[in-house]
Structure formats: structure tokens, C-alpha cells
Amino acid sequence: MAKKKKSSDEQLIFLPLGGSGEIGMNLNLYGIGDQWIMVDFGMSFAGDHFPGVDLVLPDITFIEERVDMLKGIVLTHAHEDHIGAIPYLWAQLRVPMYATPFTAHLIRKKLAEVGLLDEAEIIEIPIGGSFSIEPFDITYVPLPHSIAEGNALKIDTPHGTIFHTGDWKLDASPQIGMPACEKTLSKIGDDGVLAMVGDSTNAFSTKSAGSEQDVYDNMLELVSGLKNRVLISTFASNIARVQTIGRIAKETGRHLAIFGRSLHRVTEAAKETGYLKDFPEIMDEEHVMDLPRDKVLVMSTGCQGEARAALSRIAEGQFKKFSLAADDHVLFSSKIIPGNEISIGRLINGLIEKGVDVITEHDAFIHVSGHPGQPDLEAMYGWIRPEMAVPVHGEVRHMTKHAKLAKGWGVGKTLVPKNGDIIRLAPDGPVKIDQAPYGKLVVDGSCIIPADGEVMAERRRLLHHGHLVVAVALDRNGDMSSEAECVSYGIPGWQEGGALEDRALDIIEQVIDNMPKQKLFDDGVVDEAIRRAVRKMLSLEIGKKPIVQVRVLREYDD
Ligand SMILES: [Zn+2]
Ligand SMILES: [Zn+2]
Prior knowledge:
- By secondary structure, this protein is α/β, with parallel strands linked by helices.
- 29% of the residues lie in helices and 24% in strands.
- It contains 15 helices and 27 strands.
- Strands 8-7-6-3-2-1-21-22 form an 8-stranded mixed sheet. The chain has a 7-stranded mixed sheet with strand order 9-10-11-12-13-19-20. It has a 5-stranded parallel sheet with strand order 15-16-14-17-18, sandwiched between helices.
- The longest helix is centred in the last third of the chain and has 20 residues, at 523-542.
- Bound molecules: zinc ion (2 copies).
């Protein structure tokens, strides 16, 4: 009988299926022989490229096809780009999940919402705790980030240690959780690290991420000097910021109200897992408007201009329980996520038109990033001193910059991965050795479909070109038994009974009249001839080529 290979004889593989080449949708796989672990299982938000769609998920075909080899899913933290795919795709894998308490709490809530909570095994690991998924020995290494319980993973393998940073920053006073422990990180470096696989989001930033304490100090001074109502909008998941805003309400003698479902949900989760201990009482939404204007501080969702979020509805005067008037103040304690500029601009314009005073991070120091700038990265490389750097969590420009920086800080080997690259980290890595299937899925209504499939392509065509449906009835001789009928959607210049429709009807008649008799009995031929002729006419007349759909009806009187 062949001796079973020792795991140190097998290659150590790294395979990102999401998050390498984009910010969002993080999914990383590590494998040795037939033992695989997944690190993070995230989603991203759909932009204009996927009309009608909100969420984008990674294509997990590769690991689904060998799911018996997948031994566990390890979640670094609770941001949507790291856990958001779980309610949609976990049921296809059904392997145990590992997370620290706050992250585990939010995962449970997500699974409960889709009725999967009883089926999933979630193994809660204490902060800083270790566990084993053979042949990987894994330790959570707490790092500050813009959510409670940011974590790196120290993954010990028979080939050496991987330091998978997760999302992180340096912050001497993070308000929630502890600062990065230099001693722990240096010790990891002293023991030797094969590869650091890490966050590239802010690789272009020459400044350190900045401290939550400074946000508190600045925002306190700012709010202390403001009269009338103050509304502060921030990311719901940023527990440290939620804490900061709560403290400011207390310090400035204002009552705190919270508007927005996700803020309530995350605040509750934070309290249930032991955070937000000295948080002020949240006041009843019904009575906010009864208070004097300078006794109110509202925290709300919607800092990215999301149409359905509380702030947009307040700005439009469509929020029943609260309204803003001239000389009230709105603070955006957040950054503009690329892609959201237009919706945020629209929101700010709406507020300013009402006479509301708008303050963003450009006007005052009221936001810090959750990701490492260059000084933070340099410090981390100084502690960890890996043999190789594998930047992830970034577009290709961020990852390439990160790799160059790492080289400059003395890291011998770097590799910039792309989603789907099967990379051997050891022995003799890093090197791409193969290609896995990869891609995106979109959540469209209650369906999960390929992002690059026919449905999305058709949806975009419909959106951009308009749509014309033509019905033609032919009798047993192949003659038109009545005038054709047209129904149009989104075609410029088209009116029922108008010139363009007349023109189309003429052309349809001509096509039928000019067609050789025997071909008139082939639906496919008739359909294609009409479709081509009508599209050509529309292209000439209006400069657009709508989708034209032809239905040939056969009307035989017996
Ligand atoms: Zn994050
Ligand atoms: Zn992230």
C-alpha cells in the first residue's frame, strides 16, 4: 500500500477567489494536499454595471467541486466584504465556520434571517484564541479596524507561518478593542514568517490611518460649538465611531436618537457582546421633535447617499419622526466610497438647499480610515519581516503599489495575485502554477445568477437600447391576415400611431411582400428578416438599435 504523503511533502497553495483585483468580495483559500481552509466569505455591492442588482458574490465553483476537502471557513471580521456571502452561499458548502464573538453574533443573525441558523456550525473563538484545522494551526491576532474585533490570522503550516492581516490599521487609542500589540507582532516575526498576505486598500496613502481618539477630540470641540439640531451620519458597523458619537452626546448635554435599521442592529449586537458599556440611553424616536433643537443629537445611516436610508429620507422631508430645518447641522463622519460621489453629492445639495449646514471630512477632522497607510504598513513589515509579501484586498494598482513598498522595506519576494490564480507559496514560492475558475455572481431578486451571463447582458441591452415587440399574423397562404402590431419600451421618438410606427409597419409589409413564397412558412426566416429590417430602419431614423423581438402568429380559419 502506498504510504500516505506527509503534509510537509505537499505544496502549500494560496488561491484568492475574490478581493484580489477589487475592494470587496474577499474570499481566500489555503490548501495543503486535500486539506483546504477558506479565509473570509464576502460580497460586494453592485455598481451601475449590474442594473437592478444590489449584491455581488464570488463564484465558488472551484471549492464547491471539492467541498469534501474544505475543512472550515475562518472569518477575520464582520464587514460585509468578509462575511456577506454567507447567507447566500454557505448552504452550498455546509462546513463549520470559525469567528470571534462579535463576528459570530452577526453571522448568526444573518443565518437566522434566511432560516439556516440551526443547520450551521459556528465555532466561537475567544479574542486572541487559537484552534486547529489540520494541518493548519490558527491564531486570531487582534488588530484595530473600523469595526469591533478586527483580526489578523497567524496560520502555522508544515511549510512555515502565514500572517494573513485581514483589514487593519494602527491606532494607539482605538476606543473599541486594544491597540496592536507590538510585542506579539514582533514575536511572530522573530519566530519566522513565510508569507504576509495583506490589506492594500490605502497603499497610496502616505499618512498613517489616524486615531479614533483624535476624531473624538475634534468632533467634541466641533459639536460643542454648534447650535440647533445636530445629525451625524456614519457607517453602521463602525462601533468605535458609534461609541464616539454616544460619548459626544453625553458630553454636550444632548439626547441621542438613532435612525436607521442597520445602526440599531449593530448597536444591539455590540451591546450583547459586551461593547458600548457606558453608552447613553437611546431616546424614543417619537419624541425627538419635542425636544429643544439644541438638545438633540441624531445618529443616522445613509452617509453614502443611499436612497432608502434614513438621511436621504430626512433630506427629502419624507421621514415622519424627524426633520431638519435651516441652520441645523449634518456631519458626515465617513469617507466617500468611490462610486458613490453622485448620490452623496445629490444628498448634500438637497440639504444645503434647505439651509442645513453640512460638514464633511474635507471641512473638519471627523473621520479616520480603518486601513493602513504607508507608515502603518512599514511598521507592520518591520515587526513581521516575512520572506514574501502577497498583497490582497485592493485593485491591481493598490496591490502593485503595496508590493513595491514591501520590496523597498526589505521583503525579498513579492507576488501580486489575481482572483483565480493558484499560487504555490512553498516550497519554492511564490509562483502561479495553475488557474482556477473564478468570477462573480449577482443576487437578482431571489435568484443567484452569473454576473457575466446572458440575463445581465440582456438587462444592460434593455437599459441602454430600448425594446420593440412586433407581432405579425400570417394566414394559410402566407399573407398578412391583419396589420402587424408593435409595442415599444423606451424608444425615443416612438409614439403609438406616430410616424416611426407607420414606417415600421410599412417595412414589415414590404418584407413579407418581397419574401419568396416558400420561405413565408418558416417562422425563423420571417422573424429574422423583419427583425433585421426594422432595426436597420430604426438605426437610420433615430440612431439607436433597440432590441426587436418578433412573434409570428399563424391564423388558420378552419
Ligand atoms: Zn473591514
Ligand atoms: Zn475589507
